[in-house]
Amino acid sequence: MEPILILGLTAGALTTFALLPQVIKTLKLKETKDISLLMYIILCTGIALWLIYGLFIEDIPVIAANTISLALSLTILFSKIRYG
Amino acid sequence: MEPILILGLTAGALTTFALLPQVIKTLKLKETKDISLLMYIILCTGIALWLIYGLFIEDIPVIAANTISLALSLTILFSKIRYG
């Protein structure tokens, strides 16, 4: 693998990983009272646009990181909508 | 401006904007007890790597979004180190 690709995938792994604690906490506690709905709507929209952008520029790290990040942030968003 | 560039910059604006409420709250309250130090170390490192990656692939949205995101997340990280 090319060094630049490894750099991009590492960057993506780290920023994606930053979403995990909130997902684990939300799925475990099933409580989302203190979570901002607006914030996750904005974040999910932004990540979805990054994914579309990544597909346009055909950039593997941008596509990979934002696919997983979108799944994680949508999990938090749907939990918020479900548990309120 | 090209439509793809506008798409990338919009994506970047949204995911960067998602950091703002925490920055405002932290600077206002000067309290960071409930913030995870490890999480912000990982996030700042990831964003810094995205910035370096963006410079390598010469992608304006990746560079712009991660420059501002890095400044915002470092503000939270340094506040955490200062206020504990």
Plain-language structure description:
Two copies of one chain form a homodimer. Chain A is an all-alpha fold. The first copy, chain A, has a domain at 35-84: Monooxygenase (Up-down Bundle). Helices cover 83% and strands 0% of the residues of chain A. The first copy, chain A, has four helices and no strands. Chain A has helices at 3-17, 20-29, 37-57, 60-83. In chain A, helix 2 (20-29) runs parallel beside helix 4 and helix 3 packs antiparallel against helix 4. The longest helix of chain A is centred in the last third of the chain and has 24 residues, at 60-83. Chain A is elongated and about 45 Å long. The N and C termini of chain A lie far apart (44 Å). The model of chain A has no long low-confidence stretch (mean pLDDT 95). Chain A binds chain B through residues 4, 7-8, 10-18, 21, 36, 39, 42-43, 45-47, 49-50, 52-53, 56-57, 59, 61-62, and chain B through 4, 7-8, 10-18, 21, 36, 39, 42-43, 45-47, 49-50, 52-53, 56-57, 59, 61-62.
Keywords:
homodimer, 84 residues, mainly alpha, Monooxygenase, 0% strand, elongated
Q: Give the quaternary arrangement of the chains.
A: homodimer
CATH architecture of the domain at 35-84 in chain A: Up-down Bundle
- Which spans of chain A of ≥5 residues are poorly predicted at pLDDT below 50? none
Could you give the count of β-strands of chain A? Answer: 0
Average pLDDT score of chain A: 95
Helix percentage range of chain A: over 70%
Q: How far apart, in Å, are the first and last alpha carbons of chain A?
A: 44 Å
Number of helices of chain A: 4
* Sheet/helix structural class of chain A: mainly alpha
Roughly what fraction of the amino acids of chain A lie in strands? under 5%
| Largest sheet features of chain A | none
Evaluate the radius of gyration of chain A. Answer: 14 Å
Largest interchain contact: A-B, 29 and 29 residues
CATH class annotation of the domain at 35-84 in chain A: Mainly Alpha
Gross morphology of chain A is elongated
Order of helices and strands of chain A: HHHH
- The name of the CATH topology of the domain at 35-84 in chain A is Monooxygenase
